[in-house]
Structures are given as structure tokens and as C-alpha cells.
Amino acid sequence: MWGSIGAFILRYRIPIAIVMLAITAGMGYMAQFVRMNYKFSGVLPKDDSTFVDYERFIGQFSEDGNVLAIGFRDSSIWELENFTKWRALGDSLRSVKVPVTNRTAGGKTIDMRSAVDSVFSAAHCYTLVRNDSLQRFDFVKLGSGGLQTQADADSIRSLLYNLPFYEDILYRKETDAGLMMVFVNKEIFDSNNRGDAVDRMVSMCDRFTETTGIRTYISGLPFIRDETMKRVKGELNFFTGLSAII
After folding, report:
1. Do both 98 and 203 map to the same domain?
2. Coil/strand/helix, residue 23
3. 224 assigned to some structural domain
4. Tens of pLDDT, residues 95-145
């Protein structure tokens, strides 16, 4: 059988080569019409029972697919200078903005919108304090009294380690590990308006590592989607260039 197939290919090699070139040219031409979908899509059909249950769940409790996770494993984070820079990193991430194009009847306008909704870390978390005069509980930020001395950083650490709710979420005593969660703007990150927001956040983390020596580890769906999109764009540019050559 293989001998017959080989003989067929050799006998009709020129027509086969022409067909293959035509198919390649057609695929290269159609590649220019490919468009990016920035919204994360599931793999299940929309009428699948599991997908329906999932949609019902996120409709009630929201979803966690918009969190950029930044981790570390270093006890020196609690040194005053390092912890001050950790807090500054969170503030910088929260201030990241991207240009958003708005189309109106009069034309287009560009507004700068925040790419991050909130930041949650040891330097950006709260505790409940009983307010007897108003008979209620108030949210008070840890370290709201200031961060000027090593004693202030130690105080925040002590308060945090005495809040079991945050254990294994923001910190882990046994390994000196910690986490910063960056909640990104879902509307922006599901569109091409997000631009290079993730790259800028990664650069900020790299600068933090350079100045403190504390290595950061980045994960989360926004980061994974951005890395995947870069690869897809690279392949798309290749086929678009190929179609232009052909």
C-alpha cells in the first residue's frame, strides 16, 4: 500500500505541489481577516448543565478570574524599607491607567481609565474595630497610624498575624510567604483597551525586586491571558506577513 501511495505522489507531484501552494496561499490570504477576541471563553457549550450552574454561581458570587496574584517568599519583607516599598508597589499598581476610546456621534474621545479596581495585601488590608459610641464595627486599615519606624512595621505584622482570617491568604508563617492580589477592571481586560497594562505591572514588580532583592512570582488569569495573547499575535503576524509575501 505504501509503495502505491509513494508512486502516486511521485507521478502527480506537480499537481499536488500546485494544490498545496494554492491552499497555503488561501490560508495566508484569509489570515488577514482574523480578529482577536479579548474576552475569556469557556470550553463548554452554553447549554451544558455544568456551564449553566457556573453562570448562575458567578451571577450570585461574582468570579475570581480578574485577579493578578503577586507572591513572595522572604522574611525580609518586614524590614521597614522593604515593607514601605511593598506598600508603594501596591499603590503604583492601583494607579495604572489605560486610554479608552469612546465613540460618540461627534467623533471619538479618549479617556484615561484605571485598569485596577483594588489591591489586597498585607500593606493594604483592614481589620474590624468595635465602635461602642455608634454601636457598630468600623473597617480600619492596618498601619493607618503611619509607617515611619521599624516598630510600625512590626506592629502591622503582629496585628496581621493575629487575624486568622488572613492566614494562608495573605501570609503563611511557616514559610515567610505572602501574597498581593490585584483586582483588575473586568470590562477593560475583556477588550483591546487593556493595552500593555499587564506588562507595565510586571515591570513594576521587576523594579521592586531590583531595589529590595525580594523575588516576586506572578500568576493569575490576567497574566496568563496576556502571555497567551502575545503568542497568538506573534503567530498571526507571521501568517499575515506570509500572505503579503505570497
Report:
1. yes
2. helix
3. yes
4. 999 888 777 666 677 788 889 999 999 999 998 888 888 888 888 888 877
Residues 6+ apart with CB under 8 A from 152: 80, 143, 145, 146
Whether residue 94 sits in one domain with residue 13: no
User: Domain containing 111: what range?
Assistant: 49-241
Structural domain count of the chain: 2
Please give the Cα distance from 138 to 128 (Å, whole number): 6
Selection from 215, 177, 208 nearest residue 75 by Cα: 177
Say if 246 falls within a structural domain: no
The segments of the chain whose pLDDT lies below 70 read 32-43, 58, 60-65, 104-107, 232-246
Domain assignment present for 43: no
pLDDT score of 222:
86
- Distance, in Å, from the CA atom of 100 to the CA atom of 112, rounded to the nearest integer, reads 6
Q: How far is CA 78 from CA 121, 122, 126, in A?
A: 13, 10, 18
As given in the structure block, the three cell numbers for residue 98 are: 489605560
